[in-house]
Amino acid sequence: MIELYGADYSVYLRSARLALLEKGVAHELRPIDVFAPGGPPESYLQLQPFGKIPALKHDDFTLHETAAILRYIDEAFDGPPLQPSTPRARARMTQFLSILDNYAYRTLVWDIYVERVSKTREGAPSDEVRIASALGLARTIIQALEALAADGPFLMGGQLTLADCHAAPMLTLFETADEGALLLRSAPRLSAWLQMFRDRNSFLQSKPASR
Ligand SMILES: N[C@@H](CCC(=O)N[C@@H](CS)C(=O)NCC(=O)O)C(=O)O
Predict the structure, then answer these.
(1) How far is the CA of 66 from the centre of ligand 1 (A)?
(2) Residue to mutate, 4, 12, 98, 106, ligand 1, most ligand atoms under 8 Å from C-beta
(3) pLDDT tens across 87-146, in order?
(4) Contact, 89 vs 158, CB < 8 A?
(5) Ligand 1 pocket: which of 9, 34, 52, 162 to mutate (most atoms within 8 A of CB)
(6) What angle is formed at CA 34 by the lines to CA 29 and CA 36, rounded to 5 degrees?
(7) Under 8 Å between Cβ of 2 and 26
(8) Is 52 in the pocket of ligand 1 (CB under 6 A)?
(9) Domains, the chain, with CATH or none
(10) Could you tell me how many helices (H) and strands (E) the chain has, helices first?
């Protein structure tokens, strides 16, 4: 039994779901709202002591940190391999994951998407200074990902990898901000990949109910 704890609005939960769906692994979603008043329930902190989502439970094995969850999903179950086989290609895939975790999530999702799109939707003012200060790093992130991206159809070429699963949820949100759409226009490989990935079954199936 595979249980994935989190909320469908989370880009990190969606990365893990994409890997499960691409792999064809049956799983159950266990709702945890990290942004609920008072934070996640105390019992969830046994699974994820930092109070972030997602966390995975497979029988008596529990795991948190999305990059670890993604690798576990690929290595523990049958289905199409989601990691390349050569050392260089595996290192490249890890490089994608690290850029997304260390630079892209905070900048593209929180500094730009949340400020420009989520807050506007909620009728709250956007923090223009925060957005403007994030644009330089956002440009570097998009240029770096574009330089690493293959000609397609997937980020690493012919094989869909964990890099696609991790990048798609963040970049799709980023693209809905005007600043994101503009920056992505200067990244033709990323743009073509995003357009293709948007219609993938796994992506459609993991769409948040609220969007
Ligand atoms: N290092 C964690 C990060 C996960 C993460 O930041 N998840 C976000 C949702 S997309 C979260 O739980 N945020 C709640 C918070 O920051 O309080 C991982 O790789 O799984």
Answers:
(1) 9
(2) 12
(3) 999 999 999 999 999 999 999 999 999 999 999 999 999 999 999 999 999 999 999 999
(4) no
(5) 52
(6) 110
(7) yes
(8) yes
(9) 2-76 (3.40.30.10), 87-205 (1.20.1050.10)
(10) 9, 4
